[in-house]
Amino acid sequence: MLDFSIQLTKDATGITKEHHDRLREAGFDDTGILQITLIASWFNYINRVADGLGVGREDS
Asked: CA-to-CA distance for 23 and 60, rounded, in angstroms?
């Protein structure tokens, strides 16, 4: 799950069928894979929004 989330964060276009197969081998079904993808993507999105707005930085 963490390897998948890291790949999704660094380069989502690099996600392959093998990533999904490894998640299934670890016990995740399609719903679980969707949830992992949505949660990781949401955190990536919201962190970029916060970074772009300078949230939490002294120079903002």
From this structure: 39
Task: Quote the pLDDT of residue 60.
Answer: 52
| Cβ 23 vs Cβ 36: under 8 Å | yes
Q: CA-CA distance, 50 to 56, in Å (whole number)?
A: 8
Q: Where are the domains of the chain?
A: 2-53
Report which residue type is found at 36: I
Name residue 4's amino acid: F
- From residue 30, give the alpha-carbon distance in Å to each of 20, 22, 27, 36, 41: 9, 12, 10, 10, 16
- Residue 58: per-residue pLDDT: 80
Amino acid at 37: T
